[in-house]
Design a protein that fits this description.
four-stranded mixed β-sheet, 3 helices
Amino acid sequence: MKYHATVAGLAQEWSNNIASREVIQHRANFWTDPRALNPNNGAGEVIAVRWDRDAAQLVEWWKGSPGHDAVLRDPRFNVIGIGITYTDGNWQTTPNRFTMWGVVNFFGYTTLPAGTVTKPGGTVTPPGTVTPPADPVAACEPGDKYQPPTVDLKSAAIRSGADLVSVAADGSVYSYPSLGNAKYGAARKIAQGFTGLKELFVSDWDRDGVFDLIAQRTDGQLLVYPGRASGGFGSPGVLGHGWQSLTLAVGQWCATNRLPQIVAMDGSGGLWLYKNSGMTYIRSQAAIATGNPAVRLSMVDYNADGFQDLLTVEASGYLRLYRGSGLATPRQEARPIVGAAWTDYTGLRSLQGVDGPGSTGVAGLGTNGVLEYWDLTSGRLTTPVSVGGGWTGFKLAQ
């Protein structure tokens, strides 16, 4: 068996899904998901849950079940993806059941898909592919397993991944709740004192289920303001100094790490990955690629394959796509231009759930004060929908 990060992302997503709902359920037609990479020689899935968190015994249970063991031993399968989720819940109402949920997806391919490796961090070159540069595996390695709790966000400053956030000239921060179908409710003032910003980012940085604010200041400080479920934000933690010359994007770049990370571009077009170490100083960086210098970055699943990609806005106005691989390094390929005249937009914001559960897209604030939204669920830029005007003088948080 070989390993593929895309397939692992598919398995991990379903593991998280069934763990959050506390059900044992197979995913219907999982082999048709784009992240299955078009298997042509069969597919299989096994699921189990244990409350002693003993992974070895989870595997033994599969081996002891004739039906599951047949899937494990099927000679057609040559690529595997594994998802493990830990929860501190009371599965089936039994007290003190600290559970471990496991999902394994198996696929068979006549020709191994590009990106297949011998193991996480290993290398193998499928026929007809170009060997990529070494991937800095440690840059994606999680320090722990993170499964955010289900938090009631009705009182929180930012209530969903589809909400918009803006900063006024006086440093006041406003949140606009998503109403669905690219419609938004009235602005609510959620913070103040955010002056001297280069950019502001919305992210659940510490994965506690509540959205936080990350401020990149013009004086070089990088600060994180922890969101509170009861509303507002706590005192900021310092993530670093000297960040003023970098162009940043924040999101879950690594498929195997549930904590958000920072991808930054320097003035020469070099891309760097900064590992999340919690609410403390960032001390780890890894060079992951080179590219064309950009004035703006946005991290979003542009091609709907389950991995985050980078959209960069160049000084010429070109919108360029760097497709993510789920690993630290983006895909080794030509970087296509997917748009032009994007310097007309002063800010970009990746959004989830605007058009319903599972939808993804990007909002852009124009220099004319009009906010537009592009749905990306189809894997490409669609015709933008106007969200509304009157945003002149505001900075759109990413």
